[in-house]
Description:
The complex is a heterodimer.
Chain A: E1 4-5, E2 11-12, H1 28-32, H2 46-49, H3 54-63, H4 65-81, H5 96-116, H6 126-155, H7 163-167, E3 171-175, H8 181-191, E4 195-199, E5 202-207, H9 214-231, E6 238-246, E7 250-252, E8 259-270, H10 281-287, E9 291-302, E10 316-324, E11 329-331, E12 334-355, E13 361-368, E14 375-377, E15 383-390, E16 393-397, E17 400-403, E18 412-418, E19 426-431, E20 434-436, E21 444-464, H11 467-485, E22 490-496, E23 502-508, H12 512-526, E24 531-533, H13 534-549
Antiparallel strand pairs in A: 1-2, 3-23, 3-24, 4-5, 5-22, 6-21, 7-8, 8-9, 9-10, 11-12, 12-13, 12-21, 14-15, 15-18, 16-17, 18-19, 19-20, 22-23
Chain B: H1 3-30, H2 37-69, H3 77-99, H4 102-119, H5 136-166, H6 174-201, E1 206-211, E2 217-222, E3 228-229, E4 234-235, E5 245-246, H7 253-277, H8 281-285, H9 294-328, H10 336-358, H11 363-385
Amino acid sequence: MDKLICKCGHENPPGTVLCESCGRPLNEQEQNKQLADMRYEGTARRSQTYNKSIIDKIWNFFSSVKVGVGIIVVLLIAAALGTILPQKQYVPATTEADIEAYYTDIYGSVGTVYHALGFHDLYNSFWFIGLVGMLAISLIIASLDRFVPLYKSLKNQRVLRHSSFMRKQRILAEGPGDAETLKKAEEKLTDLKYKVSTDKNGLLAEKGRFSRWGPYVNHIGLIIFLFGVMLRMMPGFYVDETLWIREGETRAIPDAPGYVLESKGFTLETYTGEGEEEKFGEAIDRVGTVAKNYQTDVVLYKIPEDALPGDTDEMEKVEEHAIRVNQPFKFDGYALYQMDFQQDELKTMSFALQNKETGESRGELTIDLVNPETNYELEDGSVVELLGYYPDFSGFENGEPQTATPLPKNPGFLVKMTTPDTPDGETSFITIQNTVEPLGDNDYKLAFQGVETRDASGLTVRKDRTLPILGLGGLIFMIGVAQGMYFNHRRFWIQQQADGSILLAGHTNKNWFGLKKDLDQVTEHASLPAYRDQQEDMEAQEKREGEQLT
Amino acid sequence: MTLADISSNLLYVAFIAYLIATFVFGGAVKGNKKGTYRSEERWGKVAITITVIGFLAQLGYFITRWMVTGHAPISNMFEFTTAFGMTLVGGFIILYALYKTAVLGMIVLPIALLIIAYASMFPSEVSPLIPALQTNWLAIHVITVVIAEGILAISAAAGLIYLLKVVDQKKKSKQRFWLEAIMYSLVLVLGFVVTSTFFTLTNYEADFAYVNKDGQPSEITYNMPAIFGMNEFEPMTDGAFTPLLEMPPIVHAGKLTTVLWSVVVGTVLYALIRLIFRKRISEMLQPFTKNVNLQLMDEINYRSIIIGFPIFSLGALIFAMIWAQIAWSRFWGWDPKEVWALVTFLFYAAYLHLRLGRGWAGEKSAWLAVIGFVIIMFNLVAVNLIIAGLHSYA
Lengths: 550, 394
């Protein structure tokens, strides 16, 4: 394509609408408009100029505001759809099959369809992520398409514009002036913090040009943010683990090599409604109990780097800390959060080995429900062997006992009992309040004696190295939004023509009321001719025509 | 009088001030025969003075309640919704200072009144904070959001005035239908307030036992005669109204009963208004907009979104993410309230792009601003009360 040569002699890149130098409209369509399209200063945007190759087509697709808004609206609707029923992470089921069953059980056929469409995990679906990706591409391309020419144009703008450009501005004033007019206008405009440049018989006053960059700055912030989110999929950037730790227990922290945590205890406090809290009495009476504090007191240890694997004797104490909700424990880029708890979790169970007929006891044994031993030696050479342990027994599958979770909520024991009376041993499967003897009647049984309990804390182990990037993205976004929205780019062009008359045009990217207020002051001070708002005039005209028709 | 009493009395003062100011603004608009600013200036001044007094009283309520509870009074439905009413009036005062439009007050104040009345239907005793809320981020995040929503709602009010003026009431059209639908839904809120107040004053209470969705036995107290019964309900109060219909376990029949009562009473109210005045509500309001400058309403609509959008982004997304990272270990978890904050953000982003990029101003912008308010109200009412999530309190 050829360069466009304006009447003023300036060479414009192909696709330019308003001459970069004097502002004359360069095509017929623009010449016929009553008001100039000032959105991008009439510059040549790539998307409006080229449409041949496949790259042009892709570029044009993503640079379109229509497409951008389309993506936003589809994302908005998709996001809303995901809130109709709870997402899978908020459903009390873990395996895929259980989750599917849960939706059907609780929500009926709606739940079945919701699950079948994949809406139970909508925000991780490939199409949703794809939409976010398209939004990111649109942000980049649409910004480049507009920013580059706009920047060039505003940087190189001239003071003197052709009268046809000025007459196509929304704010326009024409009328007589005197020798002092330009000087006085310049005075007042400088007063109002405008940057004024003059050239021969004209002046250009400009304020808040940087607000024009706001949209591009906030888009950069969003792109950085989305980039940060993408980084979390890379290994090493992001750790999300759950650590269940019981009172008195010491455990290695998952995914935090070299660190070991000891729990001193879990505390649950509730509001009493007494003393200081008396004012809450009514509310507490209405809802029952209200939690006041969830807290796990921990000690953090570090294993020296030269220690042998599994050697915990040389652990160095790093810090004692109380982890509370809203007060995570941070160390070395990791953070531990108080997320969950289990009060009175079973710790041990004791049994007596008894002869069923005589009730005679061969001694007692205590099984640690977290780390059970396999052999328990009792009196007279009697032995109880633990053949299988199922901490959270959930039933049999193909004759095999199953456990739902590794937590000792409903322990089941498969034991072999050997006594001098029964040297071959007897097998028994024991759960709370139930005993099964799979290989025929036994002479001996394990009689339940008692339990010990303790509290357990559910902690989340988190490392997120993308947070600084996300924070930076958010900060840049906010700067861009404030820059673009709380400031306006206002300009006035004033020319004194050969006969001494004044031609004035004004433009702002938004808040025309503010622009007019400024102009009112300048008009008064410099006795400028009265201005008119051409858009209001046009609308009033349309209205009159409309009324005549009806 | 204790500080708590002073606090609730100040809220009454604010409520009454807003009520009076509504009528004075109405009078200022109605009495403006010449269509100039000057002719509504005198009554406009009186009205804005009363509004400011009401706002200061409500600010007094807010501060004294903060002193009483020891935490920012935005921690449950009553407190948050009341604060929303306050920021709505605050936003109006700012825009009145900029543009001096009495008609805006005539529309904003009754909406604020409805919102505060709606808030008062929730338990209003001072309540202690659960561990997740015990942080300064509660005040920082929620106050920023409520200010942003108050300002954004002004754009809807300006949009509504624009529509009241431009929508032709003589011709049947989609616009006329939907505009009246907005008026009808405002009457439904009034229906809820009237019903709730009536049954509270008459001390209606009925207890039922039922089986919840996890198969556990539970109990519920109805404060209105139960139209819908919970799953496998058993009345526990003698002589209680027997539910007409039993609901499946996932439907909260108690809330559904409240909704139906409000709709029925609201619809009766609406029918009465139509019967007495023989006009649509929007038709009755239209004469008030005779002198409205459409350009100015469009400007207020756009300006309040421009002021509100950055504040909303900061409060509802950025502060929210920072707090979520501290309290829940992740800055974003697709909780329904989070999602709807994102939906609101995306919606206003679409508004701005349509306006700047495709020249959507005037009537189109007005409709969008009203839809934006509907989304905000949905997030406040429906997401808290219907869609269960981490944010559902009260």
